[in-house]
Amino acid sequence: MHKLFFLFLIILIATCATTTKFYIKARNKEEVKIGAFEICGKNFNILTYEEDTALISCIKKK
């Protein structure tokens, strides 16, 4: 039973520590920032930006 509890605790810590990455489809960089702000709040990074798609990473969960 203790092993199961510690396994659950480790999974919980690992899940909370990871960052969330997702793609946003937008016409310009301002739309990317607005979309990322709506999903992540103030804590986001724009990892890559191409023609109409950007890869966003949330630093902290909302």
Structure description:
The chain is α+β, with helices and mostly antiparallel strands and 62 residues long. 45% of the residues lie in helices and 29% in strands. The chain has two helices and three strands; from the N terminus they run αβαββ. It has helices spanning 2-17, 29-40, and strands at 20-25, 44-49, 53-58. The protein has a three-stranded antiparallel sheet with strand order 1-3-2, covered by helices on one side. The longest helix has 16 residues, at 2-17. The chain is elongated and about 55 Å long. The N and C termini lie far apart (33 Å).
Give the helix proportion (percent range).
Answer: 40-55%
Mean pLDDT, all residues: 79
Spatial strand order of the main sheet: 1-3-2
- Classification by helices and strands: alpha+beta
First CA to last CA: what distance? 33 Å
Radius of gyration: 16 Å
Range of strand content = 25-35%
Point out poorly predicted stretches. none
What order do the SSEs take from the amino end to the carboxyl end, as H and E?
Answer: HEHEE
| Inertia-based shape | elongated
Question: How many strands appear in the DSSP assignment?
Answer: 3
User: Tell me about the biggest sheet?
Assistant: 3 strands, antiparallel
Q: What is the overall number of helices?
A: 2
Layout of helices and strands, plus pairs?
Elements: H1 2-17, E1 20-25, H2 29-40, E2 44-49, E3 53-58
Antiparallel strand pairs: 1-3, 2-3
Keywords:
62 residues; three-stranded antiparallel beta sheet; alpha+beta; 3 strands
What's the gist of this structure?
The protein has 62 residues and is of the alpha+beta class.
